[in-house]
Amino acid sequence: MSPAxxxxxxxxxxxxxxxxxxxxxxxxxxxxxxxxDGRPLLLRLSDLDAVSPLAADLPPAVLDARVRAxxxxxxxxxxxxxxxxxxxxxxADLGCGAVTVVIERDGDDFRWRDxxxxxxxxxxxxxxxxxxxxxxxxxxxxxxxxxxxxxxxAPAAAPPRRVLLIGPRVGLLAKLAAALxxxxxxxxxxxxxxxxxxxxxxxxxxxxxxxxxPEPERAAVREAFGRPGVDTVVMAASAPIVPLxxxxxxxxxxxxxxxxxxxxxxxxxxxxxxxxxxxxxxxQLTAYRLDRLRRARSHTVLDATLGPGRHCLPLGAxxxxxxxxxxxxxxxxxxxxxxxxxxxxx
Length: 346
Prior knowledge:
alpha+beta, Rossmann fold, Immunoglobulin-like, 5-stranded mixed β-sheet, 8 helices, 21 strands, 20% helix
């Protein structure tokens, strides 16, 4: 009897970075995720802050070795024929925890079975197994074609992880550039984008105009990035608050398919925020605003695991005052939404 095949594919994915409250950084990582039966495997595994071994910044020799391992052309790195599918995005140390699986051949085909969360050399499947996930039986030629195509540059690479900041080099943009670099996003600052050659503009996934840039200069920026062949998201700074602007840039750089996102929508009124989630996962919602003295204020509205669907979250008294923005985060994405109808009180 022929096995029931699952489809296998690959697609770009992102673990978004963050500027932490204590001044530290959570690094931004681009990687390639496994797509099983048309859905990213990472979304099947509940709330995981993890990346696959197929990171975008790997040297070619290392990427080749990891692909060959998934093709069973190298020995498994863990006892019991187990391979790491997702690991710690900061250090890739097994001690931080990893999703592992047994990969084996079935004739010309491949099977992934016994998914588990593993923190040491050996795993207790009864205690730490992902019961109900897999086994998956993949058609051999299609499985090999997807993985070997990765060595030839497929799937399509993510957009450039660089942003051009346009405005004065001192003050806000300098702090923003430092924060973006701290989480692994390249950032350059210029006063005049019109003089930048088209081939250089294409090296940026996004461009942001500073809040003090006059309208004639903003128009020149839009014209520069409107040249034929330039595919860059251009945006104006929402408010002079560095963590908020980091989130705005991250959202602009996200080109992942809509069906691959855990966080799919964010809207807000002064009374409530609505968040739409496609798969269970931890969601953090933060409100940002400036007070009357132009000092940045932030308020954590939510830090909890949400299930799939649309969630309405009341905004308590004092959260929305004046021009307020909400930032929703999961491990794989960021959304920013303005709330413009609050009162002018502090």
